[in-house]
Amino acid sequence: MTESTWKVVVDGDHLTISGDSFTFTTSGTDPMQLEDVLADLQSALRGTYGQYCGLSRAAEMVGERWGFLIVRDLLVGPRSAEELSDGLPMMSPKLLSRRLHELAYCGVVRQLDQVDEGGQRRYELTEYGHALEDAVLAFGRWGAVTLEMPRPEDIVTDASLMVALKATFLPEAAGDVRVSYELHISGHVVNVRIDDGVLEVGAGRLPGADAVVDFGSALLALMTGESTAADVLATGDVRVDGDPALLSRFEEMFQLPRLLAPKVPA
Q1: How far apart are alpha carbons 168 and 194 in whole angstroms?
Q2: Domains in the chain with CATH codes
Q3: H helix and E strand count, the chain
Q4: If I label 154, which of 31, 69, 227, 265 is the partner at 20 to 30 A Cα–Cα?
Q5: Spacing of C-alpha 180 from chain mean position
Q6: Are 232 and 221 in contact (CB under 8 A)?
Q7: Counting beta carbons within 10 angstroms of the beta carbon of residue 77, is it exposed (0 to 12), middle (13 to 18) or buried (19 or more)?
Q8: pLDDT digits (tens, 9 = 90+) for 67-102
């Protein structure tokens, strides 16, 4: 079996990529533009997987690049294209428009008649699209066990944090709990309210919260069991305004699965 080699050449305002069986040149070197080119090629060549299988159909509908992240952000609530773009800054507006069109064609999202303050139409998940929530949360849990230090290009958003909190919540550990938290994480503020095993998440401050917790960079270590609430309180890595015992309660209710994850190259 021979190994294919790609060659990339930047020449002024052009970028040329060549392989054993192809050569193409773009009219610019912007990574977003390159992704648009690849998406155009993919659309031109796209077919089905040729599998009579539910997973195959699902992959055809939402498995394209950025599809799951668009669904993730819309699980939090309706968004305009501009709001989605703000949360997915490495995705070009052209590709976002294409993906929204494809997801709407599949019945996963729909455009609302209402507009935001800037006059832009908003998008929301359909009932069929909302049924993806369990799958998205499961994928998030599965992928999160490989997280270590953020890569230079990695960002955190309100939507990604709120979905992560949903993904790691253990209802069985919160069956008799009624508590609320205001959480400060990586420069973002989100809140959670728990009532008899039912979780609600929101963006922003929560006046009257039972505890205000500033996690610094210790949240992942708590969720993986690498650190305990007692550890991070003793080192000052986490600060709690309220009863410190509520951090231990939080730790019990939000955990990642204990999987032996492979080391994924950065």
Answers
A1: 13
A2: 7-45 (no CATH), 54-131 (1.10.10.10), 158-253 (3.30.1050.10)
A3: 11, 11
A4: 227
A5: 23
A6: yes
A7: middle
A8: 999 999 999 999 999 999 999 999 999 999 999 999
